[in-house]
């Protein structure tokens, strides 16, 4: 595997927690502790454009619909904010959670939010009214991972559990996955076979099939903050508080490559978020206030 650093995106004034592909090819969005939502162009990393300034750190960004160009933002103060990116207008801002919104995901025709209050809330995308509220823990709901059929989703909690729900109109708890020894911070669903991978405070990766644990790997030295599958699903990327990014074979749980201080370019603090823009381009965001773009190409061995 050949990994090359392609670009560095600097300009945020605080740790960066959120990344998302933009509605236009070759652009992406970032959100950070400084409250800035920024749009970047891949080919011109020096020209990041501040789109909006919120009054709280941005923890989550989610595109709602490719056609309507609506973007949802979750912040540390529990606000859910929706922007129309075509008209550059604020559409909605409401108090969604008591405490931070840690994650936002689209599942079917609903927007789901996960909060520090332990709640997972489903919102109608058409008018952002609350459709359902799931209360299965008294600790934080940290991360949401949609299933591949748009009728199932997983939620990782700070009580060490992953809960699997079926149905998006009236979600039903179907399975509780135990195995983590600390908070679950990261989940990723294989885009082809639907298998789940989890990570969190205990620095392990756990690979699940049919709700059964099949691999547990001591993956990092510190918390696993982010997991994401390459769109073609040949690779899984993990980002950690130990400042490293690791690339894995998701079928075998074998480590393929490490991006860390041994490389000419690397993050100097915690890696908080990863985002694949294509099968060969990976973004990483860090506490060091930078976003790095990596080109990842397989060789004959992987």
Describe the 3D structure.
By secondary structure, the chain is an all-beta fold. The chain has a domain of 125 residues: Methylamine Dehydrogenase, Chain H. The chain is 0% helix and 59% strand. The chain has no helices and 28 strands. Strands 1-28-27-26 form a 4-stranded antiparallel sheet, with no helix packed on it. It has a 4-stranded antiparallel sheet with strand order 2-3-4-5, with no helix packed on it. The protein has a 4-stranded antiparallel sheet with strand order 6-7-8-9, with no helix packed on it. The protein is globular. It starts with a strand and ends in a 5-residue tail after the last strand. The mean pLDDT is 95.
């Amino acid at each position: 595997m050949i990994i090359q650093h392609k670009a560095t995106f600097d300009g945020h004034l605080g740790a960066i927690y959120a990344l998302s592909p933009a509605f236009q090819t070759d652009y992406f969005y970032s959100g950070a502790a400084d409250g800035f939502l920024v749009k970047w162009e891949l080919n011109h990393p020096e020209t990041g454009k501040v789109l909006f300034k919120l009054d709280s750190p941005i923890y989550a960004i989610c595109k709602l619909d490719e056609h309507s160009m609506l973007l949802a933002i979750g912040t540390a103060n529990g606000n859910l904010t929706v922007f129309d990116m075509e008209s550059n207008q604020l559409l909605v801002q409401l108090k969604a959670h008591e405490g931070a919104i840690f994650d936002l995901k689209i599942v079917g025709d609903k927007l789901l939010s996960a909060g520090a209050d332990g709640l997972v809330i489903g919102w109608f995308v058409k008018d952002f009214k609350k459709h359902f509220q799931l209360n299965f823990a008294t600790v934080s709901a940290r991360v949401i991972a949609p299933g591949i059929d748009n009728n199932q989703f997983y939620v990782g909690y700070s009580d060490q559990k992953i809960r699997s729900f079926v149905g998006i109109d009236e979600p039903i708890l179907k399975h509780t996955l135990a195995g983590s020894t600390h908070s679950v911070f990261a989940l990723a669903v294989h885009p082809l076979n639907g298998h789940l991978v989890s990570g969190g405070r205990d620095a392990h990766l756990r690979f699940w099939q049919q709700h059964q644990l099949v691999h547990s790997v001591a993956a990092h030295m510190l918390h696993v903050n982010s997991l994401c599958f390459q769109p073609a699903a040949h690779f899984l990327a993990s980002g950690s508080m130990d400042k490293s990014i690791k690339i894995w074979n998701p079928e075998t749980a074998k480590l393929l490559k490490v991006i860390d201080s041994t490389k000419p370019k690397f993050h100097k603090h915690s890696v908080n978020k990863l985002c694949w823009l294509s099968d060969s381009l990976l973004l990483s965001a860090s506490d060091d206030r930078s976003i790095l773009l990596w080109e990842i190409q397989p060789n004959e061995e992987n």
